[in-house]
Amino acid sequence: MTAQLISGNEISKxxxxxxxxxxxxxxxxxxxxxxxxxxLVGADPASQVYVGQKEKxxxxxxxxxxxxxxxxxxxxxxxxxxxxxxxxxxxxxxILVQLPLPKxxxxxEVLYAINPKKDVDGFHPVNVGKLMxxxxxxxxxxxxxIQQLLIRTGVKIDGAEVVVVGRSNIVGKxxxxxxxxxxxxxxxxxxxCHTGTKDIAFHTKRADILIVASGRPxxxxxxxxxxxxxxxxxxxxxxxxxxDGKRILAGDVDFDTVKxxxxxxxxxxxxxxPMTITMLMLNTVKxxxxxxxxx
Length: 295
Known about the structure:
Elements lengths: L3 E2 L2 H23 L4 E7 L3 H17 L2 E7 L5 H12 L6 E4 L9 H7 L11 H8 L8 H12 L8 E5 L6 H9 L8 E5 L6 H5 L4 E4 L17 E4 L3 E5 L5 E4 L4 H4 L5 E2 L7 H19 L4
Parallel strand pairs: 1-11, 2-3, 2-4, 5-6, 5-7, 7-8, 8-11
Antiparallel strand pairs: 9-10
């Protein structure tokens, strides 16, 4: 069996083109420009790259973009004051505070301070709760991207056995909740495996769709999956460096052995990664429409 490569790069381009047209239509018909602000505390190199990518993508799609770069010694009070100001700013529909924050700051208090209607990351407890009961305003970006990869590749989710490896609040728990809902692009039977699972292979071998977000290279190998499985590899792990100083990346799945049995599989890089920023843009557009009372 030759596995189909599920390209996050290609599917992300499709969605961004749809968004570009929708944003142009909102401006033309309603004089509405969605607005996204990013807040970066400190100078973490990876965070700077991520924020730069979000800013660039916003401008490319026609989204109004603001960026607030704060020093690493910013106090909790000052950060909360800025968030309060952004909550009240009608130009801003989405607020994204780049994580991780410096250790002296409370991530929970900061995330809870964001107006849930502007929480385009989908991390506020109100939005997590709305997802749980099947009435979400916004889906968390990486899980939403995973669902779109499956839908747009034509994978049958309804009735499928889905196994999720990993129970993080960012990926594992929300993707499980998304795919078990009685809704289009969902209605699956979902099992979650984690570090306390006695025999992970017992579960992964039953999976029609396997989503791996364990944070550890080669968590899943070819002998742990059945023929014809669809595999979504969320992991990005640096496993070495090339001679010219470039990072060598690997997922949480042993790609070479699993692809021999899979019907379809995401590569790393180029799979789930490109979808995350795209779904952030989609959430920002949705936030703008909600704020304006548009369907």
